């Protein structure tokens, strides 16, 4: 089924601004927004990139406590929760669902350190100062796999004066809570400053397990996180600054937000070998009381035994900045590691079909040396060298698979798989970027990065007797395992070597102090890799190639009416080759190269200071992200298959012109903020709205995998003293209780059945802060 496109005029008509009717005003003015998107501290209006900067205050008022919730404020950004991993999609590009060996197409950076795996940011945001979201390829400055864009998270640094603060939140509907303590300030007169942050969070979900949980009315999905961070800032001399950050966190989770969301019982199982298995699975689901309805209940057959997560993480970041005359030489080193064990109910139902166990050990070390020339010269430049070394160890993984057939015990059709996967990667790169200020108003920038990476992996899978280490020898069981997509294999060490060149060219015209126009052309590459989740035993599906993007963008950044109005726009067109797409291959998600796609659209950001007390804003985007060459997988449900699928010999159809995953044709957010001082207090009220057009939440395109268009509204009311030493606020999130899905798919071995995750329903949160 194809989604009917919405024209830009239809969406943007509601935000059209009649500038000619507005008169110029004097003070007040909008505050300047400072970012480091180009590794320099500068105004966001001077950066020739489509970028959103989200402050800690804005995140707090919208109940944003983790990365997944960020997409509610930033159009053309979708962050979804797939099994065991987050999937980040920007301008329609992104993949990697439930595949621990896959790196995101949107580069994530925490205080300058690359974090390519979702488990590196499992815990909620901790003492975040701001988040910068850069759209479009960022391969030259950021490097490492930033083909669709980059998200840069910046933590608070030690303060110049002593601070002691406690802050927290409590959600009334389900009981989630966060409590954070902060100590910050200088240490005597030593030139040292330190910041200690300790946080405890508890996430009580709205999902009730009516089969194996605590019963109706009792939430059966929860998460607990603890984190401690120490940052030390040392002004070693007038020309040397050193910043060290050490962090440890622990996170554990029980239960799951995933559920069966629908079932077309008329959909037949066309494979006669699998037909009795399908019937047994559905019978077990019916016996568990499954309602096959998208709501706040699931019927999974296990909570603590089948679905849980335990993770311990450590990270160290060291930044040294040295002034050498007018130049700056900086070093950023990072260490990141985690030990993680997860178990999940792979069928999301009361049928004990698939339980997956994944022990995951990860370690990463990176070094970057960068030099930066002084600003204000005719020619301004920077360059650097980068090194990354990491290992991923998934040895000891496995699946317990019970095909649910009612036969004598001697012929029980169930088995287990034992999976070993180990990957090593080493990467080097160097970059240089220079800006020639041709005149005081016109400049040209050229940048290039050369990257070399060697990645190797070894994997094996054994088929054993159910829940034992003994090899399975029953030929009937082995035949059924093969039919259901599971095969034994032992892949010798496979090695990939890649050498890629990314580049960017930019022309910028500063029309005057308030208007800045730019054109950018960028080329970027994302490395290939290996499928840790490959289960069939076909080595051709073990490896996937790098993907490439070519982007063209025209933008304008304007501050008008004595800087009461800020208006930024970007018009872009991006071509993708060898697009990496994640699809469900029988029982596991694997990555393959799809072919080609294109993404084009318009982004608008507007902020207007109506008066000293009232501010309004809008972020809007129209997008057309479509496959231009891709053979997509046909639905299992023959009732939903096209004529092409019904006549297809290989189970695929032409996806040319079909939308990419999680790529709505229109999306946006808007807010109105009112702040007023009275007596010795400061009052604030804010209303936020988010809109999204319909989109596919699964790579298999059919009506059942479409999230319909929706609106969501958040409201926040708060009061603080004028000194801002204390504050309390009440937030109402998703006021209209809109029920939405951002990830899901087809159920295993049951045609016409679908699963998905329910995003947060309506919630009421009390936030407080007290500082000495």
From TrEMBL:
**PROSITE patterns associated with the record:** TONB_DEPENDENT_REC_3 (PS52016)
Specify the protein's topology with respect to the membrane.
Multi-pass membrane protein
- Any Gene Ontology CC annotation: cell outer membrane
Signal peptide start and end residues: 1-23
Entry annotated with the keyword Ion transport: yes
Tell me which UniProt keywords the record has, alphabetically: Cell outer membrane, Ion transport, Iron, Iron transport, Membrane, Receptor, Signal, TonB box, Transmembrane, Transmembrane beta strand, Transport
- GO terms for biological process, alphabetical: iron ion transport
Q: Where in the cell is it found?
A: Cell outer membrane
Q: Could you name the domain of life of the organism this protein comes from?
A: Bacteria
Domain TonB-dependent receptor-like beta-barrel, by residue range, is 291-735
Which positions fall inside the TonB-dependent receptor plug domain? 44-150
Primary location recorded for the protein, binned into one broad class: membrane
Q: What family is this protein classified in? A: Belongs to the TonB-dependent receptor family.
In terms of PANTHER family, this protein maps to: FERRICHROME IRON RECEPTOR-RELATED, TONB-DEPENDENT OUTER MEMBRANE RECEPTOR
According to UniProt, the name of this protein is Pesticin receptor
Which organism encodes this protein?
Answer: Zhongshania aliphaticivorans
Q: Identify the taxonomic lineage of the organism of origin.
A: Bacteria, Pseudomonadati, Pseudomonadota, Gammaproteobacteria, Cellvibrionales
């Amino acid at each position: 089924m194809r989604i009917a496109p919405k024209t830009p005029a239809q969406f943007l008509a509601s935000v059209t601004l009649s500038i000619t009717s507005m008169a110029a005003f004097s003070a007040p003015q909008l505050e300047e927004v400072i970012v480091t998107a180009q590794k320099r501290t500068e105004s966001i209006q001077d950066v020739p990139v489509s970028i959103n900067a989200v402050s800690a205050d804005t995140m707090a008022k919208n109940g944003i406590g983790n990365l997944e919730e960020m997409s509610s404020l930033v159009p053309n950004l979708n962050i979804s929760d797939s099994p065991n991993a987050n999937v980040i999609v920007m301008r329609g590009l992104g993949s990697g669902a439930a595949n621990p060996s896959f790196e995101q197409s949107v580069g994530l950076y925490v205080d300058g350190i690359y974090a390519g795996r979702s488990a590196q940011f499992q815990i909620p945001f901790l003492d975040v100062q701001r988040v910068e979201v850069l759209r479009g390829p960022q391969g030259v400055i950021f490097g490492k796999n930033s083909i669709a864009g980059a998200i840069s998270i910046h933590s608070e640094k030690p303060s110049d004066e002593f601070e002691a603060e406690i802050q927290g939140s409590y959600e009334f509907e389900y009981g989630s809570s966060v409590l954070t303590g902060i100590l910050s300030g200088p240490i005597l007169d030593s030139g040292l400053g330190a910041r200690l942050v300790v946080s405890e969070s508890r996430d009580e979900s709205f999902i009730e397990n009516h089969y194996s949980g605590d019963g109706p009315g009792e939430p059966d999905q929860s998460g607990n996180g603890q984190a401690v961070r120490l940052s030390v800032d040392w002004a070693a001399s007038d020309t040397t600054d050193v910043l060290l950050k050490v962090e440890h966190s622990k996170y554990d989770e029980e239960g799951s937000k995933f559920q069966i969301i629908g079932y077309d019982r008329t959909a037949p199982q066309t494979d006669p070998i699998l037909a009795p298995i399908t019937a047994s699975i559905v019978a077990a689901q019916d016996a568990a009381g499954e309602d096959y309805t998208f709501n706040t209940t699931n019927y999974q057959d296990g909570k603590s035994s089948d679905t849980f997560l335990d993770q311990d993480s450590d990270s160290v970041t060291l930044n040294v900045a040295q002034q050498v005359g007018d130049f700056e030489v900086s070093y950023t080193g990072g260490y990141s590691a985690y030990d993680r064990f997860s178990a999940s109910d792979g069928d999301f139902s009361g049928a004990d079909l698939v339980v997956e166990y994944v022990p995951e050990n990860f370690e990463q070390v990176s070094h970057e040396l960068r030099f930066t020339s002084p600003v204000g010269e005719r020619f301004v430049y920077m360059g650097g060298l980068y090194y990354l070394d990491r290992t991923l160890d998934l040895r000891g993984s496995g699946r317990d698979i019970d095909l649910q057939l009612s036969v004598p015990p001697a012929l029980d059709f169930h088995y287990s798989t034992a999976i070993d996967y180990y990957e090593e990667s080493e990467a080097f790169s160097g970059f240089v970027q220079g800006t020639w200020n041709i005149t005081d108003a016109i400049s040209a920038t050229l940048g290039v990065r050369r990257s070399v990476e060697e990645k190797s992996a070894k994997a094996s899978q054994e088929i054993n007797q159910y829940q034992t280490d003994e090899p399975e020898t029953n030929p009937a069981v082995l035949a059924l395992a093969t039919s259901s997509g599971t095969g034994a294999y032992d892949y010798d060490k496979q090695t990939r070597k890649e050498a890629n060149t990314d580049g960017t060219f930019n022309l910028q015209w500063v029309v005057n102090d308030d208007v800045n126009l730019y054109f950018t052309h960028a080329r970027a590459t994302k490395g290939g890799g290996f499928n840790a989740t490959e289960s069939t035993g076909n080595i051709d599906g073990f490896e996937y190639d790098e993907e490439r993007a070519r982007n063209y963008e025209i933008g304008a950044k304007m501050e008008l009416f004595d800087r009461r109005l800020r208006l930024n726009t970007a018009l872009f067109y991006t071509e993708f080759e060898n697009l990496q797409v994640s699809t469900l291959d029988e029982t596991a998600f694997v990555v393959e190269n799809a072919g080609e796609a294109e993404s084009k659209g318009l982004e608008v950001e507007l902020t207007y200071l109506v008066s000293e007390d009232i501010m309004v804003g809008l972020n809007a985007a129209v997008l057309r992200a479509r496959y231009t060459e891709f053979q997509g997988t046909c639905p299992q449900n023959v009732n939903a298959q096209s004529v092409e699928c019904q006549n297809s010999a290989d189970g695929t159809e032409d996806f040319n012109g079909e939308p990419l995953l999680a790529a709505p044709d229109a999306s946006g957010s808007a807010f109105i903020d009112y702040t007023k001082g009275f007596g010795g207090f400061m009052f604030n009220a804010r209303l936020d709205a988010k809109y999204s057009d319909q989109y596919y939440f699964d790579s298999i395109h059919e009506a059942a995998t479409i999230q319909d268009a929706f609106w969501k509204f958040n409201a926040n009311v708060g009061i603080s003293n004028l000194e801002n030493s204390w504050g309390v606020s009440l937030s109402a999130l998703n006021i209209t209780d809109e029920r939405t899905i951002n990830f899901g798919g087809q159920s295993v071995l049951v045609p016409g059945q679908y699963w998905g995750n329910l995003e947060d329903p309506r919630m009421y949160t009390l936030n407080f802060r007290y500082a000495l």
